[in-house]
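The freezer alarm interrupted the setup, so I double-checked each line after restarting. Inputs confirmed:
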Amino acid sequence: MRMVAPAADGSLAIAMTTGYSAQTEGALLCINAASDWALTCVDKLAAQSSYTLIDYGAADGGTAVGLWNQVLDRMHARFPEAHLTLVGNDLPSNDNVALAENLALQLPRDPQPTVLVSCRSFYERLMAPGSVSFGFSATAMHWLSASPGPLNTHTHVQASGDAEALQRFTAQAMADWNFQLDLRSRELQVGGLLLTVNLSRDEEGRYLGNNGGRTRNVHDQLHQIWREMTDEGKVSEELYRNATVNNFYKSPEEFMAPLKDTNSPAYRNGLRLVDQRTVYVECPYRRRWNEDKDTAVFAAGLMATIRSWSRHSFASVAGDAIADEVYSRLEQRIASAPEEWSLDYVEHHQIMEKVAA
Ligand SMILES: C[S@@+](CC[C@H](N)C(=O)[O-])C[C@H]1O[C@@H](n2cnc3c(N)ncnc32)[C@H](O)[C@@H]1O
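Predicted 3D structure, all chains:
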């Protein structure tokens, strides 16, 4: 276990709100916490004349600019003659113009890499077989490829206490993860590496927004607001049931399962587990509030970062005005009891390597 103190469409489209990286300081810290392992990965690559690097689920690419700076510098230092290509991937609904602009920040640095944008779901084949040297993904692959069916009493399955729904979501999450690793393992070249940095749940059941009771469970709070608006008649019972945050926080064992199962497609393609760890990233908004007690800034910042990943679940079923009201109520809740709020991250890092199958 490692504590990190803050220093700094597929079949089911989800969308981040615009200005993603400006609103997600926590995601940036999560990427920074993985940069040591990104360098470990590229240090393992054998000498070649060219390399292809890809960031799956990059959003606007702003949070990973520093990571890719470091990786490109390290690769250029090791292989000064090699050509480097960096691909940023996200859904067609993403702000892919902003992604292209953030990738282009790498263009002036040696060895003047090629940068490309791939606007497709990572539940599809994205790259040519055997073409990827280093694949990376941060805080993205917890989104499921399809809805596992209704969630009748909550907006997030892992806060719901609904055992039957939990089974359905777990099955979907594991099918998606197996498929994801099957796809990625086909794209990797032999000797290529994949580093996934994923929202996860630890052995004590903690996950993003649930820090074991030190502060309120953020998913419970979103659900309470949604139930409140339903009880007030602003949202119908049908819309109440349809609004589901369609993601899943897997355990370390679940992340490793396709690499331990010698019959899984990824294993048969040659994908092997190299290392894994769980990393905790403290909420940067809460840390600042602890120091400055500026409650208005804290409430606005924390609300915006929660909204960046959850808004689509409400807006897609009930429209923008209702979704806006959810976040106005959320901001008021945070402002009225700031000491009871924090959005702490539990992230699972996993290094995988492709060997000759
Ligand atoms: C929380 S953001 C993370 C962005 C960036 N990697 C980071 O760590 O700051 C999650 C991203 O995953 C993307 N995403 C979700 N499902 C996806 C899919 N099926 N294919 C590609 N990207 C997807 C979303 O569009 C969003 O931009």
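Quick read of the result. The longest helix spans residues 163-187.
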